[in-house]
């Protein structure tokens, strides 16, 4: 078995990446608008001089709820803005948006974070280009000697935070509850740190935010070496593109065969695969990998939260599934503790006993219904005004849920 795994790793990480030093563009891909739904919307925003066409969807509250006066509150918001995780899209929130509009009486928006979904994917830039230099500065990295390791600023967490705020401007949203799932959570947090007056409520669901030390510390040597080799491969244009294409090809096969997202319907699995039919998905994903950060966020949070979220009295809600193997509860607990330590007075922690990594998708055990009701409660101001609220697992027999990847 070990020999088979070694052979598999060798094929995927050595043979395939170097099989074609100059991979040609993929054929048969379509413009994003050709893949759009009837209710899809597009808007152009500018981030550091780069025009980005953002694909989004929204649900509006029924006229009767809009006409009803709401009692004034310092947490009054214009909308809920949802940010999906890696390999997701606005599709991840297709059920939550109408639920928020009907039950919370609020405008609900979800958009595709580049390079995912149907938003545009800025092209690779050469060194010396303003967008590339901004990405290098944002990542805290040293200047690259060649263009192979370049990534556009839009793909960095900081760039996506600026994109989120720019989208809010374009859609006329002054104040919002921003919800970030998994890899969307650090983007949501960064946006709140940049503009706390605009984000009075922050919901972090299965947050991929690392605090409490180097996330790679204690990792077995073979995994650490594999990660280092992966980082090297994605720094190279040809091998990196081959790696991305091969990885996604295998993921799509697993989805189609029901080995991944087995608890989701065939239509849903097909919808998650649809963005890989859009032009430029592979180059965009490569840049996103290059711009990604796995650093410990503790130092930054301790430096910025006391000067941003704490004085703004931001309400922070952290939600995680007990069965989440992608972002285990320990990560969320550590994040909660750091936020409290940094002076955030209103922290709500929710551990969902039967959920795994995709609570907005999981039907078994009523997970999706429970999650949607929880978010509605958050938007309506549930959980108290101040203080630390912690909800732990219920003492009852739990139904098994297939862990999401």
From TrEMBL:
Biased composition (Acidic residues): 394-405
Region (Disordered): 56-75, 382-405
All residue ranges annotated as the AB hydrolase-1 domain in the record: 79-363
InterPro entries registered for this protein in UniProt: AB_hydrolase_1, AB_hydrolase_fold
A Pfam family the protein falls into: Abhydrolase_1
Protein name (record): Predicted protein
Species: Micromonas pusilla (strain CCMP1545) (Picoplanktonic green alga)
Top-level taxonomy: Eukaryota, Viridiplantae, Chlorophyta, Mamiellophyceae, Mamiellales
